Amino acid sequence: MSIQVVPLAQCAIPDTDMDHYITGIYALNLPNEKGDVADWHDVFHWRLGIDNPREISVAGINMKSSNHLYGEYGVKEGREQLVKKGLIVDKPLVYVANYCRAVIDMIYDCLAEYDAIYNLTGAVYDWLYEEGQEAEFFEKLEPMKSFFKDKKRDVLIMWIDKERSLLCQ
After folding, report:
1. Cα 56 from Cα 33, distance rounded (Å)
2. Which residues, 6 or more positions from 1, have their beta carbon under 8 angstroms from its beta carbon?
3. pLDDT in tens, 122-134
4. pLDDT tens digits for 8-31?
5. pTM value surpassing 0.90
6. Residue 47 and residue 167: Cα distance in Å, rounded?
7. Number of domains present in the structure of the chain
8. Would residue 4 count as lying in a domain?
């Protein structure tokens, strides 16, 4: 009996610009300038599954856009990050969120879409580990606290309080 080895194919790199950039878990799985990666799920995200092709998270396309709150904060040209990841990039420019903006976008998307924050417990501890990132992150959430009202705002505040308490443990 022979075993068939199927090579992994990469996800198609989408067209991006400063308003429509790679974000969320995909941005967290790209190396930063130091070569570090915030998340470890790259094997599941940047490669296509045989039965479950993936679509890369892009702000304003398949994730809610938080640009009205954050503008260009944390968005940069990141083609080299994808190349460092070992991906073939056929575009001259690829815009990518930094780790803080990627997490902010995930929170915004969850609240806007579901009135809850799913699968992000411990995000600050797990993904924003460089000195100064935590303080910057919590400061950057202030416009979102003002934007959302009632239940969504309460959910955000509870999530922030929980994240802060996890950092103190």
Report:
1. 21
2. none
3. 899 888 988 888 9
4. 677 888 999 999 999 999 999 888
5. no
6. 32
7. 1
8. no
